[in-house]
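User: Predict the structure for this protein chain, please.
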Amino acid sequence: MIITAYFCAPVRGRNGDDVLPEVKRANENIGIALGQTVALAFPELDLFIPHEHEVVIDALWRKGLATTAILDACCDIIKERQILIAYTGNGISNGMAREIKYAESRNIPVIKFVEWDNSVKECICRAIANIHSAASAETPHLLT
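Assistant: Here is the predicted structure, written as structure tokens:
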């Protein structure tokens, strides 16, 4: 069973749309690196890493799509995911806060971490196990 997850980390950061390009790029690189670290550690996760799609998001933003509309689209993706994994080591941006609040409002488990370590891996393992258990409980068993 594939478990779906969303990786949440700053892109624009606390300055929002006023972010300096070099700060935004650094945030993107951190998000990609950490997201890929999670994906490598948990190959059973279908992990969506928005930072890997930032070129598309930037193009839409430059064409006038409001940041709120972009975040609405991110929440649409989160809605279809089973876990949200959030890197909070550089703080929680307004966009991240919205994504986390949205996931929590839909009872999607949110795992926040500052540093990638064994305790974070254990939290992700527990979330995956809980999802497997819930799916198993919902699956009717055939009587033989």
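The chain has five helices and four strands.
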